[in-house]
Amino acid sequence: MAHWRNPGIFADSIPFLHSLKIPVYILSNIDTDDVKAAMKAHNIEVAGVITSEDVRSYKPRSEMFDEAINRYGLQRDEVIHIGASLVSDVQGAQNAGIKAIWLN
Predict the structure, then answer these.
(1) Residue 102 β-bridge partners
(2) Which residues on neighbouring strands pair with residue 49, listed in sequence order?
């Protein structure tokens, strides 16, 4: 579990996140404490975090995407979900009516 609490990260990820002028949210199948530890380890600040623990469901099911839309007052056509899993992230977002980008 230590890997999830302090995962490797691409060198340009942090400057990229800090440069964004739009809100960024993390949706993760990893437990909340682990996501928050990883964020702290890499000095990542985002507008919100939703995990599988929060919704009692895992991506690709739509509950996490639906919760983000509802909790943060977002519109599905204004959201892009970026993720590394073709099934969990891309298919999950598309099934929830959200555009997706696969980060390979």
Answers:
(1) 83
(2) 26
* 31/8 Cα distance (integer angstroms): 17
Considering just the CA atoms, what is the radius of gyration of the chain in Å?
13
Alpha-carbon span 19 to 23, nearest angstrom = 11
- Chain centroid offset of residue 75 CA: 16
| Token pair listed for 49 | 């975090």
Residue 45 burial by CB count (10 A; 0-12/13-18/19+): exposed, middle or buried?
exposed
CB-based contacts of 44, cutoff 8 Å, min separation 6 = 14, 17, 38
Torsion, Cα of 56, 74, 45, 28 (10° steps): 30
DSSP 73: T
For the segment 62-71, the average pLDDT, to the nearest whole number, is 97
In whole angstroms, give the CA distance from residue 37 to residue 64: 20
Q: Does pLDDT of 1 surpass 80? A: no
Q: Give the pLDDT mean for 80-99.
A: 97
